[in-house]
Amino acid sequence: MKIAVSGKGGTGKTTLSSLLARTLASDGRPVIAVDADPDANLASALGLAPADTPEAIGNMRELIRERTDSKDGYGTYFKINPDVRDLPETYSRLVHGVRLLNLGGVPAGGSGCICPESALLKALVTHLLLRPGEVVIMDMEAGIEHLGRATAQAVSMMVVVIEPGQRSVQTAQTIRRLADEIHIPRIGVVINKVRPGMDLSGLISGLGDLPLLGTLSLDPKVAQADLDGRSPYTGEEPQRTEVRAILDAITERMG
To answer: Which of 50, 181, 186, 202 is most deeply packed, by most CB within 10 A?
Structure first.
């Protein structure tokens, strides 16, 4: 199961990524949570203190030079397929049964960046998505340009997190179009911050044939955890039921 979680900033994609990772780890599944957003917040969402957050691999200049055989500056030769097999275990941090890996952001596929940093990070993403035997939850930067055509089909599902509102639906449709272009096999939507009694029928209708995987309630405990820099995972109802329902929907869509 390789899940990429996308959405606009502030919709709760990092919250959902952490809830999925913690829930799967509580089931005894081997889970790697990948922070692929330059505005890295997944560590705190998983329950790590700022001082314990692993360094972003994209900032490790010596490692990048060593693995790509590169030199400082542009216009030099370097390996475009560096060896990254040991990096997930070497540079990750274990928290609540989840192995966290901080990429520091993956250069966009269409940005024109052909550099040692992009070579290393893209090789690492490909390695994580293609190696078997574990769950990978990727907290993506807004958009999906990080996933090239060579790795997109290794993603089991793209989960787009939206808030109640038509502008979020438009964002989901845009991400869906981009996902189709690089042949991501499955895409689904999670509606976050749902208030009691809220009528979602118009919102769901606006999704068209985009499948709704589930909803997450607007939880004061989650909001307070965000303010305090703590993990939003409580393991309590209704959060547990909602996250389980989302995982069941993902599993069903995967066949």
So the answer is: 186
What pLDDT is recorded for position 111?
A: 44
Average pLDDT, integer, range 206-211: 90
Quote the CA–CA distance of 71 and 77 in Å, as a whole number: 8
Closest CA to 157 of 81, 232, 246, 78: 246
Give dist(CA 145, CA 130) in Å, integer: 18
The DSSP letter of residue 238 is T
Cα separation values, 12 from 4, 191, 209, Å: 14, 9, 22
- The count of other CB atoms within 10 Å of the CB of residue 79 is 14
Angle at 159 between CA 157 and CA 162, to 5 degrees: 165
Cβ atoms of 14 and 42 within 8 Å: the answer is: yes
Structure tokens at 217: 């309630």
Give the closest residue to 15 by CA, choosing from 37, 36, 41, 39: 41
CA distance 93 to 37: 17
Distance CA 112, CA 242 (A): 40
Fold of 2-254: Rossmann fold (3.40.50)
- One-letter amino acid at 200 equals L
The CA-based angle 5-10-11, given to 5 degrees, is 55
pLDDT in tens, 59-115: 898 999 999 988 765 556 888 889 999 999 999 999 999 999 998 765 544 444 568
Q: Are 180 and 150 in contact (CB under 8 A)?
A: no
> Taken in order 20, 119, 130, 89, is the CA torsion positive or negative?
negative
**Neighbouring-strand partners of residue 212:** 189
